[in-house]
Write a structure and sequence with these properties.
It is a single chain. The protein is mainly alpha-helical and about 575 residues long. The chain has helices at about 15-35, 35-65, 70-100, 105-110, 115-125, 130-150, 165-170, 175-190, 195-215, 220-225, 235-265, 285-300, 305-315, 350-370, 385-395, 400-405, 410-440, 445-460, 470, 480-485, 490-510, 510-525, 530-535, 545-560; strands at about 155, 160, 320, 330-335, 340-345. Strands 3-5-4 form a three-stranded mixed beta sheet, sandwiched between helices. It has a two-stranded antiparallel sheet with strand order 1-2. A hairpin with a 2-residue loop joins strand 1 and strand 2 (about 160). The structure holds zinc ion.
């Protein structure tokens, strides 16, 4: 099973739609005609083998393009897989229907558990040929948003920037520069306000129509199904948000008092989003030294992580450093046929470089650990669960942060905790807002902005935009791409963070046990839904009363022991 190949030696090829159609016709025929459960199981195993191959080649095509966006041959391969994606999906949709109609569901359940069947059920509930055209339209509108945001040309101090390029000024040590850069940013949003309003209005109404066509009252239930949530709904999430208001908002208010002290300011405005007077902690060492430090760290952390990280290094499964021609951003992908994950990032000398080595490595470690799961669809869990592995790995690696940050370690840890906690109310605000939007699809754009400000007052009560008009009038969410692109996705980060905090607390109490729980969770991959995985890991369910309260109590205790004047 263990391959010794390096990434560049992984076999790759184009898979043709015709060959898949032919194969599927054969599989479908066997699946539907047979009167034996074993035969259905063996068909599904063959399909899975083919899925492994297909998704590996697709991932390789996409990764190679990301590694060099100027490489025309690489682009052609990626375009090929992008183009055939919907057709392949349609081919598989037929099999999904056959599985859903199978007389042997009990036997299938016995073989793989019921997660597999539930996922198929949910997929089928989100699709009908009747909505094909509307789905295409939705993709178009999404792309329009990407183009609008990506095409921003903002004049600032005599130069032209896009939104990402303007970013570093927002966290500059010079307060005036920060404020002016935000003015420039939101001036651009104000100039394009009609387009942002119109695009969102179209998306909301279209999604509502899709939902109604499929037989739902509004988009909310469909949105949850699209996120493959089989085990909780809007009611549970509402209870989680309520706990954030009750238990997290007060402590974030306290943290903001502390921040004034740290920064030496009398009042905090929106543009004071920096952590320390003289900048964030920086990793010490060259990229090679950081990777060597990580390798040593993962060997000391556990035998499993040691073995995993050696493979990542020896088989050249990481492309970490920023260079010309590389796509921006960071992610983890995988090649199920070869049982290997891959980490892509753009080291740029900030503390984020270390977060790549812990966060993305957490995703990769989970994927590697679940390689023995019997189905490709069990390799990764749903989003809210996937982030538990990555965010918890950020905490499990705390004892080694001195390797990377030396004398700035305490500042790194403070930023990590304060930042993670402060994120929760914002995440809940984005989520609450979206529930209101899809419950009221006919509300005009101006009402959406007024409503946003109401939620902001609830979740982010001391936010002060000073005299920056656009966010002051309730438009800031239009820069949050998830709201346009992936409805109801955002809360996933907050659910996962609540679980990651629990691992942090448990690892302080009993490291060995905490790690065993975590490793078990990683090995389970996506074989269970969120609530099942949380239970398997011995964690408290974030929706339940008392969960956040106890988490926040521990975090507060830690924060109380920090000597702020030393940061
Ligand atoms: Zn992640």
């Amino acid at each position: 099973e263990e391959k010794k190949m390096k990434y560049n030696d992984f076999p790759y090829k184009r898979i043709s739609v015709d060959s898949q159609k032919e194969l599927m016709a054969g599989w479908l025929n066997r699946f539907e005609k047979t009167e034996s459960a074993d035969e259905q199981i063996s068909v599904l195993k063959e399909v899975d083998e083919a899925n492994r191959e297909y998704s590996s080649y697709q991932a390789i095509a996409s990764l190679n393009f990301n590694r060099n966006i100027k490489d025309k041959a690489a682009k052609a391969e990626k375009d090929y897989y992008d183009k055939i994606g919907p057709e392949i999906q349609e081919i598989h949709n037929k099999l999904d229907q056959a599985v859903d109609a199978s007389d042997f569901k009990d036997e299938l359940k016995k073989e793989w558990g019921d997660t597999f069947l539930k996922m198929i059920e949910m997929d089928l509930k989100t699709f009908d040929p009747k909505i094909m055209d509307m789905l295409r339209k939705e993709t178009e509108l999404r792309n329009e948003y990407t183009q609008l945001v990506g095409g921003a040309q903002i004049e600032f101090d005599g130069k032209t920037y896009n939104l990402a390029g303007l970013g570093p000024f927002h966290t500059d040590q010079d307060r005036d520069l920060r404020k002016r850069s935000y003015h420039a940013r939101f001036q651009w949003f104000a100039e394009n306000a009609d387009q942002f309003d119109e695009l969102y209005d179209k998306l909301v109404k279209l999604r509502h129509k899709i939902a109604v066509t499929l037989g739902y009252e509004n988009f909310i239930e469909l949105g949850y199904l699209r996120m493959s949530r089989s085990d909780y709904g809007a009611k549970e999430v509402a209870n989680f948000r309520k706990q954030i208001v009750d238990h997290v908002v007060p402590i974030v208010t306290k943290l903001r008092q502390q921040k004034k002290e740290i920064l030496g300011l009398d009042h905090l405005y929106f543009y004071d989003g920096i952590n320390f007077k003289d900048g964030d902690p920086k990793p010490k060492g060259t990229p090679d030294e950081l990777v060597a430090g990580a390798q040593k760290m993962y060997h000391e952390l556990s035998p499993e992580t040691g073995e995993f990280f050696d493979i990542m290094v020896n088989e050249e499964l990481m492309d970490l450093v920023n260079r010309d021609g590389k796509m921006v951003g960071g992610f983890c992908t995988a090649f199920p046929k070869y049982n290997r994950p891959y980490i892509f990032s753009n080291f740029n000398g900030t503390d984020h470089d270390i977060t790549v080595l812990t966060h993305e490595a957490g995703h990769a470690f989970q994927c590697y650990s679940s390689r023995k799961q019997p189905l490709t669809s069990y390799l990764w869990p749903t989003m809210e669960s996937a982030e538990i592995h990555s965010m918890s790995m950020e905490f499990f690696t705390w004892p080694w942060m001195e390797t990377f940050f030396k004398e700035e370690t305490e500042r790194f840890k403070y930023k990590h905790i304060a930042g993670s906690l402060s994120f929760l109310p914002y995440g809940a605000c984005v989520d609450h807002f979206q529930h209101w939007v899809y419950e009221n699809p006919e509300a005009p754009p101006i009402e959406r902005k007024e409503k946003w400000l109401e939620f902001e007052a609830l979740y982010l009560p001391d936010r002060d935009y000073d005299d920056i008009e656009f966010p002051k009038s309730g438009g800031i969410w239009q820069g949050q791409l998830h709201i346009y692109q992936m409805p109801f996705y955002y809360i996933d980060y907050t659910l996962a963070e609540t679980c990651a905090f629990q691992f942090w607390i448990k690892s302080e109490e009993n490291r060995e046990k905490a790690w065993a729980d975590y490793y078990r969770l990683c090995q389970a991959g996506g074989s269970l839904p969120f609530t099942g995985l949380v239970d398997l890991a011995g964690l408290k369910l974030p929706f339940d009363d008392g969960c956040l309260e106890s988490v926040v109590k521990q975090v507060s205790k830690w924060l109380d022991e920090v000597d702020v004047s030393s940061l």
